[in-house]
Amino acid sequence: MGSDVQTEVALMRRLQRIAALPAEGLSMGYEVEACDLLIVQDTPALRASGQRLRQAKPARPVWLMALGGRLSDPTQGPAPLSEDAIRQALQALYAPHAAEAMPAASLRTRPPFADQLRALLAAHEGQAVLSLDGVDVLRLDFAQSTAQPLHSARAAADNLPGLLGPGFERLVLRVGDTAAPGGDAPRLPLTPLLWQTALRMRMVPTPIAPLTEATALRMTQWPDFRVLAHRHDDFRLCTLLLKQACTATAAAALLEIDAGAACAFFNAAYLSGYATVEAIETPLPAPAEARPRSRLARLWRGMRGGGRRRGDD
């Protein structure tokens, strides 16, 4: 309670590391009554709110978070909680839910995150919630092709790709979830948001699953100009891939552009549904043409043959 989305994401990553629980073992909740643990920003006003919440439900722990992320339990004094104490508390809270969490093992059989999004984009129906490190960040509406920031993510609405891109591998999609963003949450165009998120994944881009270095893509349509603004090389890549399927490495070589920029473009085009995978045949190497023998070669052949024959010159 009382923190922004960057602080929440950082806290969740820290708790997940300490708790050593399954990936779905911890998640951020915003309905106070449904939470097993409350973490309150350590300010005078919120500290008083935390005390009232603790009195209303004494069995539920309420921790305070100071600047720098230090956690403490007021019932145990002002000293910060050790990692061992945090781990024991989180594992004890998780234990009653362990049996319910067993089906989560089936998550391993889910298609890659990019393919989940592509299927929903193509269907033009349904809703989902996108979370980062257990923190709900966006409500996605595929019928309207919009995204709405949730809760404290509203403060980061102007730079959501910068928040989501570096954590791309840790994004989770919950299809069918209808979390309410609130009436004042802006509606952002979904496809440009996905495109820009893919461009901001890493300083050195690598293909997103299921793409590999050997994957060839072909553009199926010209992208929304909002995703290509002021990126001349992306226009050139679009033009090339509308004409022929190509791998990122080959496209970079053909257009003489940075290979990392081409890879980032491929990620963006695939994730946002503008490109499809297409098989390409690897041409067989052309047979080497017989080169005429040099004068030195003819001389050496003549020497090995016991002398030069007429017509070898």
Descriptive labels:
313 residues; alpha+beta; five-stranded antiparallel sheet; three-stranded mixed sheet; 10 helices; 11 strands; 14% strand; disordered C terminus
In short:
The protein is of the alpha+beta class.
Derived structural class? alpha+beta
Helix content: 25-40%
What is the residue-mean pLDDT, rounded to a whole number?
80
The span between the termini is: 93 Å
Order of helices and strands: HEHEEHHEEEHEEHEHEHHEH
Strand portion, in percent?
A: 5-15%
Placed side by side, the strands forming the largest sheet appear as 7-4-5-6-8
Low-pLDDT parts are 102-107, 284-288, 307-313
Rg over C-alpha atoms, rounded to the nearest angstrom: 29 Å
Number of helices: 10
Question: Can you describe what's shown?
Answer:
This protein starts with a helix and ends in a 9-residue tail after the last helix. α2 links the parallel β1 and β2 (62-65). It has 313 residues and is α+β, with helices and mostly antiparallel strands. It has a five-stranded antiparallel beta sheet. A three-stranded mixed beta sheet has the order 1-2-3, with helices on one face. A three-stranded antiparallel beta sheet has the order 10-9-11. It is built from ten helices and eleven strands. Helices cover 35% and strands 14% of the residues. It has helices spanning 5-19, 44-56, 83-94, 113-123, 160-164, 190-199, 232-243, 248-255, 259-271, 295-304, and strands at residues 38-41, 62-65, 71-72, 127-132, 135-141, 146-149, 171-175, 188-189, 216-219, 246-247, 275-277. The longest helix has 15 residues, at 5-19.
